[in-house]
């Protein structure tokens, strides 16, 4: 659990972060979004005391962070950044084992943990353990960066645009992996990004920042449905945000049980998003779809009226 | 505007006037130099007047650096053209080897071939000064944004047009910086020529070492230092301010 | 190598042509009845006669033929040919010495001619070119000069009448002493400047004012001509040695090693401090941020991250400094510091050019060897330049 209460940070005359309050619950992935210079990275770096806050209080698990020694605090908080910050003169294995070694784990346990993490992040040990960072692709380096952040099994993970420098396909792959990892590990994660799609895809809670203030926070759906002002609305994609909502809602949520009517030809998987369902309708010129499970057995159906939510909040049909 | 221009040339002019003062000052510098060498019979270098030595020094450096610029920039341009690309690794490696040859050794090796006098030091300076010029010209030309090159080709510019209108102007600051390093280093190194009989500002230094007369050494050293400052500050004017 | 038809290698072609022209046109050796009289020059065609001289060109013609389509196999062949030619170079001098030098004249000596030196130069360039074409690195690249040097050493016995050898014979002890003196001065100055330079660089990182002041002083030192700096230290050191007995007791005086050492140290400091400072400052901020973010302390970050990452650049500074110091130590001979420079200046004074060579050639060799060794060390320590084998993302 991370709590920020009235936290302020000034650099000279400039106020980078202005009296923000924020709570991140255990196991929650909280995404800080905003344009560059809005104070999101500063906020992140105050949590592990890479930057000291000027006013207000930051608590981790109920204790103010000033009570901890900065270095010991950072060793129990995972940290991954955009440029990966991998040490170029160390092998992959040594990079990943950094924090466990700082914590003076016995060598055998460090090695075991490194191999476990490499397995978890899809980096075959025999192939990658002895490589140097210069010999990795961007996506591989980023995986090593995440593995290093997870090495000492921290409860809290801070990530500063970890996938920002990657091409879109690699980025989406790693996002899916992070979601998968998070569903298993349930870490408390604070994630800074300027990519709204990334934030919508990953976050349990979305925090929109502007000029050092928090403009709005809540679940992605809540923000998409009721943006607090024009800034949040435009950040969320303006008129496109209906589609963004469709992109984070699963077919299973809107599907209706099978009706006695003839089953439509066009079909969509139950785990697909509404946006994908719309795409299928558009392509197949159909206004009804059969919803299928993993074995391709029909388990329900979905109509255009259902997708746009007519009858739920009445805002759909146009 | 004109005030700012005068200001811009203040540093070179100051160093130049100090240099000329030393070269022409003659007798009334004696008390100052006497301070460094109170017991010596003479403190003013007597063999030749300092102005002549200064001119000879400048001549040697100018010839060597001029040749180094022509050869260095020329070679770097040739090996970055499509026809000369084959020679690029060799030229780059040779230039860096040239810097490894100590000037004294080159000077000594040149004497058997060229005899005593001015030519050995010109050859030594030429070799030693080549690397910064070749290296910087290569870096400048290779550093031109490929997108700009592509655009120039896309607009239909020919090879020569691209070289003169795009590549060289864009690379000019880097090339000039290389020439600056080369020339200022050569001004100091040229003094070595005095050991093989070239008469330049190294001569008072050698005479000072041989006769144990610090005043002679001071005169030579000060003038070489000031000459380097004049040239360096002129280059500083020519080059846009470094970031 | 590409699988397409291997292209014409213009470099090897041009160098072989020039080498052939040099060989046929310029004097290969000269013979002098004694040390001072300038010798009479002999070209290869004088010496061997046209048929034999042309025959000796055959390997060069073969190189031209190979360079017309230089694929990987031919590249290896060409490398072998160039190596053989280089190894055989002293042989021509041995032949010249057999045929030209009159055994009745014990003072008669053989000078090495322009054709010989230039052939060495062109062949070395070819060696460099072929080495980079074949991408030879590490010990295999280092082996090439070692093989050539060994071959030359083995042929030493037949080169008795070489002027260089005669100069050496008379002063073998002096020569060894000079080499040792030279190395000691260079090693001492570079070692001391490494320690002092690192301390100065560390102090500069503490305060920008020290940084500005330090660089101003060191830059100023560098603009004083080396000759003058040696000279300017004479008087103050003589004065100090006269004043303090313990200084003269350890050998400090106006001339000799003390001013030479101080001047070398002064010159070595700038490149050393600059490289160390740049090396320590230019470590990727992302890496440092990550190190701190992982909970490393200041000392840990410095020892485990900053220092190892800076090391290759520091070694690069040592390389520049060492090469520079090897040359400057030669100048130090003018103020009685000994070393190989004393042969150069003695030789220049007596107009005995072979004695000059005896001083200059080892200096050149030392500089090249130091450059190669330290360069290799810096590359070895640098993991950032490893080529990526191109793994999938």
Automatic annotation (TrEMBL), chain A:
GO biological process: quaternary ammonium group transport
Protein name according to UniProt: Osmoprotectant transport system ATP-binding protein
Superkingdom as given in the UniProt entry: Bacteria
Taxon lineage: Bacteria, Pseudomonadati, Pseudomonadota, Gammaproteobacteria, Oceanospirillales
Family label: Belongs to the ABC transporter superfamily.
Keywords from the named record: ATP-binding, CBS domain, Nucleotide-binding, Transport
Domain CBS as annotated: residue spans: 258-318
Positions of the ABC transporter domain: 2-236
GO MF annotations, alphabetized: ATP binding; ATP hydrolysis activity
UniProtKB/TrEMBL annotation, chain B:
Record keywords: Membrane, Transmembrane, Transmembrane helix, Transport
Membrane-spanning intervals of the chain: 60-80, 101-131, 216-239
Cellular localization per UniProt: Cell membrane
Membrane topology: Multi-pass membrane protein
InterPro entries tied to this protein: ABC_transp_perm/SBD (IPR051204), MetI-like (IPR000515), MetI-like_sf (IPR035906)
ABC transmembrane type-1 domain boundaries: 54-235
Primary location: membrane
Stretches assigned to coiled coil: none
A Pfam family reported for this protein in Swiss-Prot or TrEMBL: BPD_transp_1
One annotated Gene Ontology cellular component of this protein: plasma membrane
Tree of life domain: Bacteria
Gene Ontology BP terms: glycine betaine transport; transmembrane transport
Family: Belongs to the binding-protein-dependent transport system permease family.
Name of the protein in its database record: Osmoprotectant transport system permease protein
From TrEMBL, chain C:
SUPFAM superfamilies: MetI-like
InterPro entries documented for this protein: ABC_transp_perm/SBD (IPR051204), MetI-like (IPR000515), MetI-like_sf (IPR035906)
PROSITE patterns tied to this protein: ABC_TM1
Pfam family, one: BPD_transp_1
Gene Ontology biological process terms in this record: glycine betaine transport; transmembrane transport
PANTHER family: GLYCINE BETAINE UPTAKE SYSTEM PERMEASE PROTEIN YEHY, GLYCINE BETAINE/L-PROLINE TRANSPORT SYSTEM PERMEASE PROTEIN PROW
The family this protein is said to belong to: Belongs to the binding-protein-dependent transport system permease family.
Record-given protein name: Osmoprotectant transport system permease protein
Lineage: Bacteria, Pseudomonadati, Pseudomonadota, Gammaproteobacteria, Oceanospirillales
């Amino acid at each position: 659990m991370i709590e920020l209460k009235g936290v302020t940070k000034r650099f000279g005359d400039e106020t980078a972060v202005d009296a923000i309050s924020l709570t991140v619950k255990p196991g929650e992935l909280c995404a800080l979004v905003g344009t560059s210079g809005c104070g999101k990275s500063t906020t992140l770096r105050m949590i592990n005391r890479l930057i000291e806050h000027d006013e207000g209080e930051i608590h981790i698990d109920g204790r103010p962070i000033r009570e901890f020694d900065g270095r010991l605090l950072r060793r129990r908080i995972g940290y991954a950044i955009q440029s990966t910050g991998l040490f170029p003169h160390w092998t992959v294995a040594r990079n990943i084992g950094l924090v466990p070694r700082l914590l003076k784990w016995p060598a055998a346990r460090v090695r075991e943990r490194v191999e476990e993490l490499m397995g978890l992040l899809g980096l075959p040990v025999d192939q990658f353990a002895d490589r140097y960072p210069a010999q990795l692709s961007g996506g591989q380096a980023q995986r090593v960066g995440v593995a290093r952040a997870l090495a000492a099994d921290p409860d809290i993970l801070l990530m500063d645009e970890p996938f920002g420098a990657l091409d879109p396909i690699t980025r989406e792959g790693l996002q899916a992996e992070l979601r998968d990892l998070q569903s298993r590990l349930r870490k408390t994660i604070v994630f800074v990004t300027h990519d709204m799609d990334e934030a919508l895809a990953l976050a349990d809670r979305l925090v929109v920042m502007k000029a050092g203030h928090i403009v709005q926070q809540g679940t992605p759906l809540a923000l998409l449905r009721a943006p607090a002002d024009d800034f949040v609305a435009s950040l969320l994609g303006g008129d496109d945000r209906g589609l963004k909502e469709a992109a984070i809602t699963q077919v299973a949520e809107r599907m209706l049980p099978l009706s006695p009517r003839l089953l439509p030809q066009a079909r969509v998987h139950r785990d697909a998003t509404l946006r994908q369902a719309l795409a299928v309708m558009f392509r197949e010129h159909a206004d009804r779809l059969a919803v299928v499970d993993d074995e391709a057995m029909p388990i329900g159906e979905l109509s255009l009226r259902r997708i746009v939510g007519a009858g739920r909040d009445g805002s759909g049909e146009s | 505007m004109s005030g700012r221009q005068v200001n811009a040339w203040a540093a070179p002019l100051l160093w130049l006037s100090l240099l000329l003062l030393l070269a022409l000052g003659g007798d009334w510098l004696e008390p100052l130099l006497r301070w460094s060498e109170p017991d010596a019979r003479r403190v003013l270098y007597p063999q030749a007047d300092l102005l002549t030595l200064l001119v000879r020094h400048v001549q040697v450096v100018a010839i060597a650096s001029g040749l180094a610029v022509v050869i260095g920039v020329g070679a770097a341009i040739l090996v970055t053209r499509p026809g000369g690309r084959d020679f690029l690794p060799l030229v780059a490696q040779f230039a860096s080897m040239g810097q490894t040859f100590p000037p004294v050794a080159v000077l000594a090796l040149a004497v058997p071939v060229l005899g005593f006098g001015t030519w050995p030091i010109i050859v030594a300076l030429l070799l030693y000064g080549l690397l910064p010029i070749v290296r910087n010209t290569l870096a400048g030309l290779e550093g031109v944004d490929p997108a700009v090159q592509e655009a120039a080709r896309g607009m239909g510019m020919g090879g020569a047009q691209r070289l003169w209108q795009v590549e060289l102007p864009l690379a000019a600051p880097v090339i000039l910086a290389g020439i600056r390093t080369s020339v200022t280093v050569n001004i100091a190194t040229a003094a070595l020529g005095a050991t093989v009989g070239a008469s330049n500002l190294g001569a008072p230094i050698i005479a000072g070492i041989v006769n144990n007369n610090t005043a002679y050494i001071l005169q030579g050293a000060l003038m070489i230092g000031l000459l380097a400052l004049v040239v360096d500050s002129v280059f500083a004017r020519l080059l846009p301010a470094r970031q | 190598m590409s699988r397409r038809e291997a292209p014409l290698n213009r470099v090897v072609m041009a160098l072989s042509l020039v080498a052939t022209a040099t060989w046929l046109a310029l004097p290969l050796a000269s013979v002098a009845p004694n040390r001072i009289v300038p010798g009479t020059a002999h070209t290869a065609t004088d010496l061997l006669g046209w048929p034999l001289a042309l025959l000796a060109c055959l390997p060069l013609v073969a190189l031209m033929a190979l360079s017309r389509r230089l694929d990987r196999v031919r590249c290896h062949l060409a490398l072998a040919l160039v190596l053989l030619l280089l190894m055989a170079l002293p042989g021509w001098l041995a032949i010249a010495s057999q045929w030209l030098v009159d055994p009745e004249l014990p003072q008669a000596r053989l000078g090495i001619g322009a054709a010989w030196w230039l052939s060495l130069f062109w062949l070395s360039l070819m060696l460099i070119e072929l080495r980079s074409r074949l991408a030879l690195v590490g010990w295999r690249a280092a082996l090439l000069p070692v093989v050539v040097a060994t071959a030359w050493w083995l042929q030493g016995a037949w080169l008795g009448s070489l002027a260089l050898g005669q100069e050496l014979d008379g002063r073998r002890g002096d020569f060894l002493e000079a080499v040792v003196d030279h190395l000691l001065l260079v090693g001492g100055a570079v070692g001391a400047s490494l320690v002092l330079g690192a301390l100065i660089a560390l102090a500069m990182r503490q305060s920008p004012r020290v940084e500005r002041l330090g660089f101003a002083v060191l830059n100023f030192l560098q603009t004083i001509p080396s000759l003058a700096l040696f000279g300017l230290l004479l008087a103050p050191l003589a004065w100090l040695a006269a004043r303090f007995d313990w200084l003269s007791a350890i050998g400090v005086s106006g001339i000799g090693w003390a001013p030479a050492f101080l001047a070398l140290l002064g010159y070595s400091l700038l490149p050393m401090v600059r490289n160390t400072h740049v090396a320590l400052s230019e470590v990727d901020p992302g890496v440092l941020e990550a190190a701190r973010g992982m909970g490393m302390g200041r000392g840990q970050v410095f020892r485990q991250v900053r220092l190892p990452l800076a090391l290759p650049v520091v070694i690069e500074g040592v390389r520049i400094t060492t090469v520079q110091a090897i040359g400057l130590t030669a100048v130090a001979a003018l103020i009685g510091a000994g070393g190989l420079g004393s042969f150069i200046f003695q030789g220049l004074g007596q107009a005995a050019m072979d004695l000059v060579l005896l001083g200059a050639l080892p200096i050149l060799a030392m500089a090249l060897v130091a450059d190669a060794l330290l360069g290799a060390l810096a590359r070895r320590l640098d993991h950032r330049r490893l080529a990526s084998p191109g793994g999938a993302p």
